[in-house]
Amino acid sequence: MKVAIVGGGPAGLYFSILMKLRDPSHDITVHERGPAGSTYGWGVTYWADLLDTLHRHDPVSARAIGENSVRWSDGKAYVRDRTTVHHGDQGHGIGRHTLLALLTERAESLGVRVRFRDPVTDAPERLRADLVVAGDGVNSALRARHTGHFGTDITAGRNTYVWLGTTKVFDAFTFAFVETAHGWIWCYGYRYAQDRSTCVVECSPDTWRGLGLHEASHADCLALLQRLFAEPLDGHPLIGRPRADGRARWQTFRTVTNRTWYRDNLVLIGDAAHTTHYSIGAGTTLALEDAIALTGALHTAPYTRAALARYERERRTALLAPQSAARYSARWYEDLPRYINLAPPRMFALLGQRHSPLLPYVPPQLYYRIDRAAERLETLRRLKRWLGPRVARTVGRGVERGFRKDGAHRTLSL
After folding, report:
1. In 7-86, which residue ranges form alpha helices assigned H by DSSP?
2. DSSP line for 325-339
3. pLDDT tens digits for 96-130?
4. For the whole prediction, is pTM greater than 0.85?
5. Which of 40, 98, 268, 276 is 20 to 30 A from 381, comparing alpha carbons?
6. What are phi and psi of 107, to 5 degrees?
7. Tell me: the pLDDT tens digits for 300-348?
8. CA 39 – CA 97 distance, rounded (Å)
9. Concatenated DSSP letters for 314-328?
């Protein structure tokens, strides 16, 4: 099979590796519009079970990724003058540049051609390939040519955020919430190398404008954020890339969905097919899992169209849980005033429960008590799991339409 992959991100590169491992005779080219080593972003996160999955499919790249990752097992939250530490599951971080370099090296060692500075924005049929894989991200040019067919929907979130780096090496996955005269602003920090960490800063549009961040220069923005997060940064600087106009790269998260994921011999993968809010740290994992599923379908289905249909069905089903978690996680931060005045240990406990479909509809103090009781009683734990999705489905739309008043949610009485 002749395969053209448009976009040199994790999904496209890993797909090329797995296809070559399945059948070295595949003729595969990855077309990446940027120069080698020019990737945006700082570090990405993943959890231990991803390494287990990667080892089953390609032990060589799995070992390389594991050896170049850093690990943590604690979460830490700064709220006003209080600090809370939670011991949890082991997480991993790796620089995006490092990850792509490792995958590129592995792909090329197997005979994949990786062409940099090679944008493909016109008709995929000009590539003269049996299969064209659109792995060109949120702004996929190939998908945009057939938006009506794919049924693409892009929804912008409410909050604004900026993706930065820092020389502060966080010893835990760190959350810091700072109250200002214009509302709350917060950051997520995690290390991805021995001497670097990612720091994502987020706030509501009102806070963003109230602090003057909407018109501040990149340098002034970093200076203000360094003052606001002086405690968790411990005197270390923030690092970022300004936009062409000299301002910081603030943006709103865009949730991408598609009615279908393929058209003739063109198939979507990774962020071109779907996105999940960054607060659950699953984007890279889901992209790699797309690659695994697409490879498996192509080598088990009787013909290409059946394979693409199978891939779409499998991944849509697998994405139901993380997409739900991402929606509720994003909503938790949008509703931060609802939780921020809890005692720090309780607030941090509900931060860990932000994926729950039940949480937005139950008073936070009551939810906390239910959650603690559920840890001791299996019957209550099963009830909580059963009730959450049903409450969300039956009252969610009504809550969104009628329960929002003066910026605050009403809650259900149970």
Report:
1. 10-22, 48-57, 59-67
2. HHHHHHHHHHTGGGT
3. 999 999 999 999 999 999 999 988 876 667 788 99
4. yes
5. 276
6. -60, -45
7. 988 899 999 999 999 999 999 999 999 999 999 999 999 999 998 899 9
8. 6
9. HHHHHHHHHHHHHHH
